[in-house]
Amino acid sequence: MTYDLQFFYVWQNLDKLGRGVLVSLELTGLANLIGLTAGFAIALMLRARTPVLRVPATALVELFRCTPVLIQVVWFFYCVPILFNLFVDPMVMAVLALGLNLAAFNAEGYRAAIQSVPREQYDACAALGLGGWTRVRHVVLPHALRAALPVLMTNGITIFQQSALVALVAIPDLMYEGKMLSTETYRPIETYTVVAAIYFAISAPISLIVQRIEARFDRVQA
Amino acid sequence: MRPRLFPWRKATETMVQNKLLKIHNLHKSYGDLEIFKGLSLAMDRGDRLVIIGPSGGGKSTLLRIVMGLEDIVGGDVYLDGKPYILRDGGKTKIDHKLQARVGMVFQHYTLFPHLDILRNLTLAPVKTRGTPRAEAEAKAMALLDRFGLAAKARSYPSQLSGGQKQRVAIARALMLDPDLLLFDEVTSALDPELVAEVEAVMMELADQGMPMMIVTHDMHFARNIASRVVFAAGGVVVEDGPPEQVLDNPQVARTREFVERVFARKK
Amino acid sequence: MHFDPTIPFKYWDALLIGLGTSLRLTLICLAIGIALGFVTSQARQSRLLPVRAVATFYVELFRGTPVLIQLFWIFYCLPMLIGAEPGNFISAVLSLSLYAGAITSETFRAALKSIPREQYDTCRALGITGLRLAIWVVLPQALLRAIPTLLSNAVALFKESALISAVGMADLMFIGSSIANRTGRPVEMLTAVAIIYFTVAFPLTRIVGRIEARILRRLAV
After folding, report:
1. The CATH number of C9-219 is which of 1.20.1090.10, 1.10.10.10, 1.10.3720.10, 3.40.50.150?
2. What ipTM was estimated for this complex?
3. Which among B96, B109, B124 has CB closest to C128?
4. Angle at B252 between CA B250 and CA B255, to 5 degrees
5. What's the pLDDT tens digit per position in C178-187?
6. Which of A118, A180, B166, C112 has the maximum number of C-beta atoms within 10 A of its C-beta?
């Protein structure tokens, strides 16, 4: 078995892959914007006392967490336009699908983090006469955000990897450009290896940072 | 065959001239922090040693060293006159045959959560000593019965109170017929009302002549159970004598200061 | 065009076959993945640097790249490299198992790390060491602690398995979207597919919480 590796065509078309990377990063960035903000709002709704807020939030979270991302993306592409008579740029749909998916996972992360604030902290606040916004702003939030940070970052990179799915609905992201290039050049091994390496090179440093942060939290708590 | 419940009794009757435990010129440090600076201590077969001293003074570390859980920097430890722990070629050498004759009970019980109480007791003898299961179980049941825990044999540790768990931990250590039993703050994690049941079991063992080395914060209990009290501070033994001396009439200023501070609340 | 919820029911048998493929694939890959993951978690603690390095590289690579590209690589590149066509099913099993192995190895690693140090001290005091320590004390506790996360891994794997539709395997996703295309009824069909995935995954995620609570109670010593 001898296969002659030739990366020449890949190098020659690196600009295409570069454009793909930019699209992937744009998708990831916008999805994270939605995920971090909407996720927090949903987390608050999950903790609400009134079912009017709690039930739809729970349904949204569970729906996005318990179905494949692929079907979410495809559904947004083919069904949303028909259902709502809404025909917009495919990128918008992709961002919406990925963003809401991330929001659902982040909401869980936020919720768990808020729950991880020890009861004693609330008791101490009560004893010190700290209530309402002061308590949230200075005690609950700092603790919860710190606890949520590693989860939010991990989810953030996961959505970068999941964003490769949009290639299947012909959005020109890194995966899509790679697929095109591999068919054009008949060089799937070289192309897919380079594409995988690019994904890895972007994800790895961030997950390394997450590991560092978690290790530090572990040490602080020990 | 009836399992022997308290085999060390025989040992006390046939007193040997050797000291049970001898620690000589012990050195130990964690990084730059020197814990022991040439500590020496000896213990006879009939002794029940209670170690007292300031927190951070290495009382628990001393027990962990005697159990063979810690590396040492210098010195040697003899068990029954035989070299047990020593430094050799820059390494801590532990005689594992002798180590098997020492047992230890820890502050946080550390029962095996995945095993029921009976299995907690029989795991070590069956798996490491090759004791037949039936024999180990008979012995375990006898011990549990003795400690009022027979009904819990098939319960899991999470279903027991702290006091019960600690009594199980003591029974588990006894399963291996140790010649010396170490107690590391075994009542410190317990609710006050559960302390008595554990101390009662220890008193019973004391009455049977079980050699023990105990670290405790409970001075009242220390006075009751100890045959000797050792005050360790600054990395050495400062004072060593019967409880009436060390606790009530200390001869060394450093000890007096410590004891007065500890008892100050009660006066 | 009006919404006709009866359409998916006309194709229930085809969808069921697709679900069968998805489930079968998930279970096979989960079994292989758990075995692979446990071995990998041990390899990552190996004293030998090369063993540790290879295991770490494998885990980081499969966790750090999209599953889709792993799938494409194994479907399109591997046959060229080995000069043989392993077949769609084998390729799918291979790629999802490798992915499952990477994620479960992390699960086992976390489980091993969560066993308190005192358990090891106690075992030394009781003379339980080496292989006996691993088999009778460490492994059972690690497995118990890993069970909830392994279940979550199973759900994740089931969801990721939808990707194999992209390489033409007739799983639930593939069959659903094919029917959607042929009938021109994407809303009904794709929604039905989503609901089927949900119906399988959701109860599992609920069970995870329950089991976790029970195990933590048991292990709270």
Report:
1. 1.10.3720.10
2. 0.88
3. B124
4. 65
5. 999 899 888 9
6. B166
